[in-house]
Amino acid sequence: MLIDWDKMMPTGSLRAGAVRRFATGQQISVVYVETDPQARFDGRPHRHPHEQWVVVTAGLLGMTCDDNRFELSEGEVAFLPANSWHAAVGVGPSGARYLEFSAPPRLDLLPDSLVPDALEFPREERRDS
């Protein structure tokens, strides 16, 4: 089945300047992200119980995972283990387009989902603590 990202409804985004579109199957989900060069990144790490693969399709994406910082360019792939602290921290001068594959699927990203948000932020950064 072909996914036409232009026909997929945008889902919530962690930052202004990024558009995220979501698709899911029974075993894995994928988010297509388009981020403008002017997008603001706070660098806040988060984690979730899903392993995640990030595939950059255009531009440059800066990331952290646990204590490692790295940049991904077109065609490069990063693996983020389940429950690892990670964050997107910036994009290159032309922005970035990338795919985030998550297993099990991120059902919390479905529009009007009743599944609780899977993201966890460090305790000292939580507003509700």
Automatic annotation (TrEMBL):
Span of domain Cupin type-2: 35-100
Name by which UniProt lists this protein: Cupin type-2 domain-containing protein
